[in-house]
Amino acid sequence: KLFQKKSKTGKGDGFPDFVLVDPSSNLPFIVIEAKATLGQLQQAIEEADFYTEACIESGHTVISIGIAGQDKEGYGVIVHKAKGTKWAPIMYNDQPISWIPTIDDVRKLIASSSLFDLNPIIPSPKVLAEKADLMNRILREASVKDEYRPAYVVFQCGWGGFHLC
Known about the structure:
Layout: E1 18-21, E2 28-35, H1 41-57, E3 63-70, E4 74-83, E5 86-89, E6 91-92, E7 95-96, H2 103-111, H3 125-141, H4 149-158
């Protein structure tokens, strides 16, 4: 019923290419439209935005994604989120992203009406100091000598084994 009477031609029901559902809530959170050629990228995002409006009208905050292209010419991706009655691109380092965001990123984006940027949030000095104290205590309790702690932390943080970073 979400896309009932939402055909792009104005007649009948509409069917976006893909509607991704958040597995934790079973609610739609991404609408994707795909096109065959890179030249159709703008059409893909416009159609994704169109279907996303139906979700918004039903009370669901949803990200719209247009994908176009093929191996021969390459691929393009545009990611939008509604900003009032307009569409705004999702950004990273002051540039529109050209990839499909992760589930966690999408959850963050739809949880905040003002979030349109995926730049990492740098913790406050207080939070960083608390984490450093905690890592130091763990290493001390594990009998890691002071001179080996920097190497141990870099190794563990760099390959995901130490999840305090």
